[in-house]
Amino acid sequence: MRIEILDLSPAMETGKGPLVAFRSLSGQAWARWRGSELPQVGALVDVEVDVPDEIARWAIVDGPATMASDTPRSPVRIRGVVATVDEDAVVAIRVGADIILVELARPIDSFQPGQVDKPRVGNAIEFTTPEIDIYPYSV
């Protein structure tokens, strides 16, 4: 995913990288920076987005692909279309032109009444996660 760095917030916990605000074609959000060098505000960077926590709640929705959060350490809302679902509950979600892999909690762990086992390919789903990590790479 190509992002533009909008702001930096220093790491508050030892061993964790700083938080960065970024803009992509799918919206604006805050994420934990996992690169070895800090980016500059205004830089365009190619990153892989990682959702470190299992997703226990999701909803089938309508609407455009979205990745959004308001402030550092606020939850990140992600909406996209299910591209693949494997037997281990790992789901590839297309957010705009990019793919994000998420691991779904077992249905027995779900808090959402009537939640199906897994979303189906082609479903547009939305979920919220406490944070996302971004890993820069070169193409």
Name a few traits of the molecule.
11 strands; 5-stranded mixed β-barrel; mainly beta; 139 residues; 6-stranded antiparallel β-sheet; globular
Give structural notes.
- The chain is an all-beta fold.
- It has no helices and eleven strands.
- It has strands at 2-9, 19-24, 27-33, 44-50, 59-60, 66-68, 76-85, 90-95, 98-103, 124-129, 133-136.
- A hairpin with a 4-residue loop joins strand 7 and strand 8 (90-95).
- The protein is globular.
- The termini are close together.
- The mean pLDDT is 89.
- Helical content band: under 10%
* Total strands: 11
The helix/strand order is: EEEEEEEEEEE
Number of helices: 0
Q: What percentage of amino acids are in beta strands?
A: over 45%
User: What would the principal axes of the Cα set say about the shape?
Assistant: globular
The main pleated sheet reads as: 6 strands, antiparallel
Report mean pLDDT, rounded to a whole number. Answer: 89
As residue ranges, the low-confidence spans are none
Structural class: mainly beta
**Over the alpha carbons, how many angstroms does the gyration radius reach?**
15 Å
